[in-house]
Amino acid sequence: MQKFVPFEKLSKKEREKLNKARRGSWGALNPVTRRPENPKAYNRKKLQKGEDLRFEAFFVSDFCDAR
Predict the structure, then answer these.
(1) Closest CA to 22 of 32, 30, 14
(2) Which of 15, 25, 41, 47 maximizes the CB count within 10 A of its CB?
(3) d(CA 9, CA 11)
(4) CA 14, CA 8: separation in Å to the nearest integer?
(5) pLDDT band at 18 (very low <50, low <70, confident <90, very high)
(6) Nearest of 42, 46, 62, 43 to residue 54 by alpha carbon
(7) Are 21 and 14 in contact (CB under 8 A)?
(8) Per residue in 21-56, is it b (16+ CB within 10 Å) or e — as a string?
(9) Which region ranges are annotated with the description Disordered (predicted)?
(10) Are 7 and 14 in contact (CB under 8 A)?
(11) How far apart are CA 53 and CA 1, in angstroms?
């Protein structure tokens, strides 16, 4: 039978071994906190008002074909 040794008096390696054994897995749960985007914040990736990429592509392709 092993003697009881308080956690504080264990060696660093023994404490690490004990801590690893106590830790469980998260399973299917992802521990990363997720928050929805702030709707009031500026988003430069979002298409801005007045910009229409389809019109731009149409204009450039017509200009190139005219030559």
Answers:
(1) 14
(2) 15
(3) 7
(4) 10
(5) very high
(6) 62
(7) no
(8) eeeeeeeeeeeeeeeeeeeeeeeeeeeeeeeeeeee
(9) 16-38
(10) no
(11) 76
